[in-house]
Amino acid sequence: MAEYAVGPLISMLKDKVSSYLLERYKVMDGMEEQREILERKLPAILNIIEDAEEQGAYRSGVSAWLKALKKVACEANDIFDEFKYEVLRRDAKDKGHYKKLGFDIVSLFPAHSPIIFRYRMGKKLRRIVRIIEVLFTEMNELGLKHLQKAPPSKQWRSTDSIILDSEKDIVSRSRDEEKKKIVSILVNQASDRDLIVLPIVGMGGLGKTTFAQLVYNDPAIKEYFQLRRWCCVSDDFDVVKIANSICQDSESDRDKALQNLQNEVSGKRYLIVLDDVWNEDADKWKKLRTCLKHCGKGSAVLTTTRNEKVAQSMKMCVDYSHNLEKLHKVFLKEIFENRAFCSQKIDASEISNMVEQILHRCGGSPLAAKAFGSMLSTKTSIKEWTDVLTRSNSCNEKTDTLLILKLSYEDLPLHLKQCFAFCAVFPKDYEIDVEILIQLWMAHDFIPLKEDDNLEKVG
Predict the structure, then answer these.
(1) What is the pLDDT of residues 80-98, one digit of tens each?
(2) What is the DSSP letter of 306?
């Protein structure tokens, strides 16, 4: 993952190096030469960073170069944060915010001495500059180049920021026959069975979760089942966590949690959805099924998984599994155009061939159609669309939707790449608090601030 989020770090460092406050408060006296080198080298590195990040995915030398660049960029950002702190300290001193303690604060804190500060920071900065100069030389040896982007054109179509969020209605219409089939199995065919487990199988981005939601919220399902529970499983198939989710409890003791689960489902006709299951261990399924078997006739567990082996590991209790079909091109086109064009009028004859190519590359995946549509909604010329098509790959069972989503990431502005990449610190399926996330972005100085901007509002 070395090739990700390097550009934003360099961009943030470039802004810090060029800060007028460093000049105003003279915190870099004696380090002017190092600062000038950085002011020349960093923009040049930024010019080739997009090419480097693209090549880093398949060239080990470039990947190693990016890893080294990322490391030194992090260290340099920390150093310039120290300069920033010194600026704030001197500003506070100039404004008389230090308490009058009756003695010289520099004598109490020698590190605040301008001479000591200059020596300590100069040593750190010279080391950083040496490393960057070496990386700059290697950059040219690796043959990295500046990728020219097509300038936006307003001649083709006009755009606005409104995106019509009608995908769920489209998916509902497109999956109607499949939904009726699953509902019929759950309500009619399985009514004389104690418990069935029915996996919904399909590649990532195909809409398994949305499809399961359509089934879960169907009126016939709501009427037929006495108890309905939704449980997001993901990577960690923890029987206790699943039991607590179904019981809407937080019991930490394993035996009590499993006993609560048996009591919760005992004698009831239930539908439990286990979403995003990755577990292939048949023993874990047996333990869960043991807890769920004390139920009313017609009970069912509906699972979603992208892994065929997961369905196979459940053979001891599966009578039927459903391979979710790829979304028909007609519905993919609706999803794509809702994102790409919103409600504006366009000249379809100019782009019809490109739209067909895009739909082909979506591989039946609604997530890919959303990603392509959102990305192209800001592209205002045919040249820009062609560039995106050139960089994109087809979505299929092998590539999944990762390549298309990576393309969407690459299309973000540098500061948004940094904000997005930061979200990786949260575990999968974690519900992120927006206010806390914005505060973390602010603490890491990820939000670019212009005059009269409010950081929280921009965040």
Answers:
(1) 988 888 888 887 777 766 6
(2) S
| Residues making up the chain, counted from first to last | 459
- Per-position DSSP letters for 245-267, written without gaps between them: HHHT----SHHHHHHHHHHHHTT
Query: With DSSP H G I counted as helix, E B as strand and the rest as coil, what are the percentages for the chain, rounded to 5?
Result: 60, 10, 35
Q: What is the domain extent for residue 75? A: 6-148
Range 16-38 average pLDDT: 85
Three-point CA angle 110, 13, 24, nearest 5°: 55
Structure tokens at 124: 């750190």
**Do the domain assignments include residue 157?**
no
Count of structural domains within the chain:
3
- Kindly report each contact of residues 42-45 with a partner whose C-beta sits within 8 Å and lies 24 or more positions away, as own/partner: 42/10, 42/13, 42/14, 42/17, 42/132, 43/14, 44/136, 45/10, 45/69, 45/132, 45/135, 45/136, 45/139
- Of 410, 408, 418, 424, give the one whose Cα is nearest residue 441: 418
Give the tens place of pLDDT for each residue, 203-214: 888 889 889 999
Which of 268, 289, 323 is at the close of a domain? 323
Is the whole model's pTM more than 0.90, yes or no? no
